[in-house]
Inverse folding.
């Protein structure tokens, strides 16, 4: 590895250490359905977002809730202390398209209709409010 690549790789690793995130891959629902839930909690304080997700009727909300709990646990592990109410917020939440399973459904007159079973990847980054105040 060249020196330039090594330096940039170390910078990426260093910036990654400050960020607490959780990633959920290959969720068997369409990205559009998951984005509705992601838009509900984007930018919210984490414990308020957990309450919103807990009482949401969408199936994707339970998966995002579990992922958010994982992101909070990751932050607590990195900072070696418990998260307090009002301290953490969802900095970014993104939903990307995953792989698509293509299937055929029998249709009238010997035809076959194509079915696309979509999946998605969700990434949540949590951060503290007072980090911006310090800078």
């Amino acid at each position: 590895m060249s020196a330039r690549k090594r330096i940039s790789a170390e910078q990426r690793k260093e910036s990654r250490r400050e960020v607490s995130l959780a990633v959920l891959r290959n969720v068997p629902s369409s990205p559009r359905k998951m984005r509705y839930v992601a838009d509900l909690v984007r930018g919210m304080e984490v414990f308020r977002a957990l309450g919103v997700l807990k009482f949401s009727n969408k199936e994707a909300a339970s998966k995002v809730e579990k992922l958010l709990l994982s992101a909070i646990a990751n932050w607590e592990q990195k900072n070696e202390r418990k998260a307090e109410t009002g301290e953490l917020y969802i900095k970014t939440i993104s939903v990307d398209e995953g792989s698509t399973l293509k299937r055929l459904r029998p249709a009238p007159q010997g035809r076959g209709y194509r079915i696309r079973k979509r999946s998605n990847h969700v990434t949540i980054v949590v951060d503290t409010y007072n980090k911006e105040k310090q800078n």
In short: The CA atoms of residues 20 and 112 lie 46 Å apart.
